Structures are given as C-alpha cells and as structure tokens.
Amino acid sequence: MKLIYKGKFNGDANSIPHGEHKPGAVKFREPEDPKKLGLIANGIAVGIIIAAVAGVILRAGIRNFSIAGVFLSYITVFPHEILHGICFKDEVYLYTNLKDGMLFVTGPEDMSKARFVFMSLLPNIIFGFIPYILFMINPRWKVLGTFGATCISMGAGDYLNVFNALTQMPKGARTYLYGFNSWWYMP
C-alpha cells in the first residue's frame, strides 16, 4: 500500500483518481451527492451514539461517562482512515474536508465483497467495538466505554458501505471505487 495525501476534497468526484469501469459494472444504490451521503451518515451516527452512550450509562451509571473518552476518540480520525488504507494493495488516496466533517480514502483497485466489508469495518472494530466490549466486561474502564461508543458512531458511513455490499452484491461479485461511489461487477 502506498498512501498519497491529496489534500482537501473539493466536492468534485471527477477529481478523485480512479481506474477504468469494468464491463457490466453496476453502481451501488447510494446517494450521488457527497453532502447528501454525509447527512444520511450523520443521522445514522446520531442514532448509534445515543444507543452506545445509553449502554455505557446503563452499564456503569451516568457518573462513569468519561468526557476524556470522547475527546480521545477524535484523535483516531486519521488513524481510522489509515486502517482503511492498509486494506488496499496498491495506491490509496487520502482526502480531507474537515469543514464538512469528511475524511476518506479511496483507491482504484477492485476487491472481493469480503475484503471490502473487512476494509470498511476494520477501524470500527479496532477503535470502537473492542474498547466498548472491554468496557462492558469491566465497567471501571469508563474511558474505554465512552471512547468505544464515540468511535462506533464515527463509522456510520462505513456501515452504509457494508450494508450496500451485503445487500446489493451477488455471490462472487467484486467491487471497486469510482469517483465518490462504489460499483460491483461479476468477473
């Protein structure tokens, strides 16, 4: 994997490096507009954070909610994208648009449904679910609980990708990123 920082994403999907379309490729049914996708993902994130924080409070009480865990989760924003990036074999491009709350990586290579799902979930497992589960096992680790809860919610866009892959890609299909959207095809 070779990570290339491309700077601020300007909203133009055509500016994102991509390979050629595969014959017969089908675009995922997902919003074309990055801002609309962001609104949907943010709505999902709000629902997730409410549920995850409720779990922390129910498990350990309101006094064990840790603001430090929330602040620490923001340190994982770039490492989150790096974990996505290491799942690519070839070049991967990192974009930012902090004003609109966007960071993402993309690459022109294709991958299996399983690898795409793993790539989408890896940072959420590492930074979100593992710390959250550890907290549920030992509620004295309150920083891990709120850290995990916040990081789980930060993966809302990734969960949309997983949902789309699992519900739209037939068995044996491969997927690739083109512009701001995902496509699948049968090899």
Q: What do these coordinates show?
A:
The protein has a four-stranded antiparallel β-sheet with strand order 2-7-6-5. Strands 1-3-4 form a three-stranded mixed β-sheet, with helices on one face. The chain has one domain (2-7, 31-167). The chain is built from six helices and seven strands, in the order ββαααβββαααββ. By secondary structure, it is α+β, with helices and mostly antiparallel strands.
Give a concise summary.
The chain is an alpha+beta fold and 187 residues long.
What's the quaternary structure here?
A: single chain
Radius of gyration: 17 Å
Mean pLDDT: 91
Give start-end ranges of low-pLDDT stretches. Answer: none
> Strand pairing plus helix content: what structural class?
alpha+beta
Tertiary shape: elongated
Strand content: 15-25%
Distance between the termini: 23 Å
Q: Count the E strands.
A: 7
User: What number of structural domains do the residues give?
Assistant: 1
